[in-house]
What we know:
- The complex is a heterodimer.
- By secondary structure, chain A is mostly beta strands.
- Helix content of chain A is 0%, strand content 50%.
- Chain B contains no helices and 11 strands.
- Chain B has strands at residues 4-7, 10-14, 19-25, 31-37, 43-49, 55-58, 61-65, 71-76, 85-92, 99-101, 105-110.
- The A-B interface holds A 31, 33, 35, 40-45, 48, 50, 56, 58-59, 90, 99-106 and B 1, 6, 9, 31, 33, 35, 41-45, 48, 88, 90, 92, 97-104, 106.
Amino acid sequence: DGGITQSPKYLFRKEGQNVTLSCEQNLNHDAMYWYRQDPGQGLRLIYYSQIVNDFQKGDIAEGYSVSREKKESFPLTVTSAQKNPTAFYLCASRYRGDEKLFFGSGTQLSVL
Amino acid sequence: GQQVMQIPQYQHVQEGEDFTTYCNSSTTLSNIQWYKQRPGGHPVFLIQLVKSGEVKKQKRLTFQFGEAKKNSSLHITATQTTDVGTYFCAGGVQGAQKLVFGQGTRLTINP
Lengths: 112, 111
């Protein structure tokens, strides 16, 4: 069953702690994206990657980091520098030549 | 930078009434996409429009792309409770590898 898997579904961060959100896809998609969604807000782009070992900053990259060591995986680290991390994080992917995005089920991150 | 504005932010209707949400881009788009996010869920792709003046229909949903390729609309005829959710437009620009999302319109329906 192909798709995008995000884990965990819920995550709690303590002050000063880095946390990593997982995103794995088995759709053989080339591009992967991380979006942040705040209540009642649209989706804001954090980072995106078109190919392995390459990624670009989106509109709100400060306080976040990513890696793309494998085509299937695009983990997002929320660092302690991100002072307002509470949000719903969505990972998405698409196939090269197709504009349509497929989204994972999201991770809700909260601060303790 | 590129911005996509979407209105209204919220819309509450009686079941059976029509619903429309509008998107406007600050720049000319190469394509516009529409997504639906059910409460507690994730966005799901509905449709993509590419041509100037394009109109596409999916059952009770009608999507339009403006002649100047800077605005778009989604119209739902005779809403049903299954239409509840947030509808997002997302604009693509030629050469850019990312979409810019509107703020979304949250639709609630009184049965």
